[in-house]
């Protein structure tokens, strides 16, 4: 779960802060700035993530605009999620406020937080394709819609056949007092992995000729990252509804 989102200048001047859980961490911008400077002086590399006993702190930096985004999350949400969302939050903030000043009203950014989280589905799926040559296609469906697909597909045909396939799988598993969580369809050259994640379906088409174990690990890691996005995205929406 998100705990706090903070955007500030490289000199430590706070622009935007949003607390989701608990109390606001005071003087956090100054502490992060000092840590960044210390890390760069000692290693020559920028610091992007710090993990503690219960929380993780993801940091994204825009040197051109001299802005830093700090995102505090639960430790189990993971480094990849934290770094991705922190960078996307910073990109969106920079887009909305290209000449930000501390005295500006940044309240409109509140409504962008959930949008940024949901939008992260796109780069997550695209990254799976770009970084693993064994994966040919990745998409995420929800009900009768496709949230994102890495390639052009016949959406109507796919959704119709998918629903029929899931119904058959559900009936078979129901006869054993169970539910289908994942399935694999394997051909001579390719295979398709179908996984249920929350209320969505994650579909990946892979080549059989590429290391199957390595591909499965990449797909499982992506599925876990998507689950984190879906759970946190839903929780953020619920918070806005309550307020």
Rg over CA atoms: 21 Å
In CATH, the topology of the largest domain is named Beta-Lactamase
Indicate the low-confidence ranges by residue numbers: none
Number of strands: 10
Distance between the termini: 17 Å
Order of strands in the sheet with most strands: 2-1-5-4-3
Q: Tell me about the biggest sheet?
A: 5 strands, antiparallel
Summing up helix and strand content along with how strands pair, one would put the structural category as alpha+beta
CATH architecture of the largest domain: 2-Layer Sandwich
Helix/strand order? EEHEEEHHHEEHEEEH
Question: How much of the residues is beta strand, in percent?
Answer: 25-35%
Q: Which class of the largest domain in CATH terms?
A: Alpha Beta
Shape: elongated
Layout: helices, strands, pairs:
Elements lengths: L1 E8 L4 E6 L8 H16 L5 E3 L3 E8 L4 E8 L4 H18 L15 H8 L1 H11 L3 E8 L2 E5 L5 H20 L7 E5 L3 E8 L2 E8 L4 H31 L1
Helix pairs in contact: 2-3, 3-6, 4-6
Overview of the structural elements:
This protein has 243 residues and is an alpha+beta fold. It has two domains: 2-119, Beta-Lactamase (2-Layer Sandwich); 121-242, 2-Layer Sandwich (Beta-Lactamase), CATH 3.30.450. The protein is built from six helices and ten strands, in the order E-E-H-E-E-E-H-H-H-E-E-H-E-E-E-H. The chain has helices spanning 28-43, 79-96, 112-119, 121-131, 155-174, 212-242; strands spanning 2-9, 14-19, 49-51, 55-62, 67-74, 135-142, 145-149, 182-186, 190-197, 200-207. The protein has a five-stranded antiparallel sheet with strand order 2-1-5-4-3. Strands 7-6-10-9-8 form a five-stranded antiparallel sheet, covered by helices on one side. Helix 2 (79-96) crosses helix 3, helix 3 (112-119) runs antiparallel to helix 6 (212-242) and helix 4 runs antiparallel to helix 6 (212-242). The mean pLDDT is 90.
């Amino acid at each position: 779960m998100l705990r706090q989102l903070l955007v500030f200048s490289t000199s430590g001047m706070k622009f935007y802060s949003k607390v989701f859980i608990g109390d606001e961490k005071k003087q956090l911008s100054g502490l992060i700035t000092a840590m960044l400077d210390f890390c760069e002086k000692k290693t020559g590399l920028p610091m992007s993530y710090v993990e503690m006993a219960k929380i993780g702190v993801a940091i994204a930096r825009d040197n051109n605009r001299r802005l830093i985004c700090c995102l505090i999350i639960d430790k189990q949400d993971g480094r990849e999620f934290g770094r991705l969302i922190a960078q996307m939050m910073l990109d969106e903030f920079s887009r909305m406020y290209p000449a930000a000043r501390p005295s500006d009203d940044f309240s409109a950014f509140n409504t962008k937080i959930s949008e940024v989280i949901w939008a992260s589905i796109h780069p997550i799926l695209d990254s799976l394709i770009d970084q693993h040559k064994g994966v040919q296609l990745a998409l995420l469906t929800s009900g009768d819609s496709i949230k994102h697909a890495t390639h052009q597909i016949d959406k109507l045909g796919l959704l119709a056949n998918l629903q029929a396939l899931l119904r058959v799988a559900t009936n078979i598993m129901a006869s054993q007092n169970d539910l289908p969580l994942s399935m694999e369809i394997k051909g001579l050259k390719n295979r398709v992995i179908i996984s249920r994640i929350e209320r969505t379906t994650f579909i990946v088409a892979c080549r059989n000729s590429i290391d199957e174990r390595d591909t499965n690990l990449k797909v499982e890691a992506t599925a876990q990252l998507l689950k984190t996005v879906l759970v946190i995205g839903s929780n953020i929406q619920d918070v806005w509804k309550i307020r």
